[in-house]
Amino acid sequence: MSEDRSYHNLPNGDAREHFSVTANAFTKFYLIESKVCYRGALPDPEGIRHVLPPDADAEQLGTAILDALSHARFIHPSHPDFDALFKERKAAELVDAYDAELMRLAGVKTKASLYRGARGVNVTLHSDWDEIKIYAFARRKGRYFWSKKTDASGKETVPASASAIELGEAYLRALAKGGSVS
Fold first, then answer.
1. Is there a domain that residue 13 lies in?
2. What is the largest CA-CA distance in the chain?
3. What's phi and psi for 85, nearest 5 deg?
4. Are the C-beta atoms of 50 and 69 separated by less than 8 Å?
5. Distance CA 158, CA 121 (A)
6. Residues 65-77: what's their mean pLDDT?
7. Distance between CA atoms of 94 and 45, rounded to whole angstroms?
8. How far apart are CA 166 and CA 149, in angstroms?
9. What are the tens digits of pLDDT across the range 110-122?
10. How would you classify residue 96: left for phi > 0, otherwise alpha for psi between -120 and 50, otherwise beta?
11. Which Gene3D superfamilies does the protein's record reference (predicted)?
12. 50 occurs within a structural domain
């Protein structure tokens, strides 16, 4: 990688605000992927994705989350890539392609089968506060983790310097408190 992924200060002079990762638990796997952040999180086409077995331990999960956080980007509106990532992409097509890929990974044929028992988790590194916040969501209504009808129910915070096992344990605690999205 020729590009600096530390992103505390972006190449165009913008200061980094935060980085985001989704670490979702499906019945057949964990999906941990870096996001492009700006007041929301979108899958990063240049990011990283980890697919772990459902029996992965806290250290494996923490290591994958830390790796995904190190590959997450913050794209400010003045950044040259902002329009391509946020304005030129069609949300419905992205969601359908994303769901199709997840159904293939899970080996299921319907979205209902994919999301049954799944839990959505957002992990955010706030560099200004030197902490990592973990939010597991409980769905009341709506189809996806990011539905407007979700409530954060499992919350954990760890220092940005936390080890992989500490982060993985905090993630599992938040996941246990967070409700199922199906």
1. no
2. 46
3. -85, -35
4. no
5. 15
6. 84
7. 11
8. 30
9. 888 888 888 888 8
10. alpha
11. NMB0488-like (3.40.1590.10)
12. yes
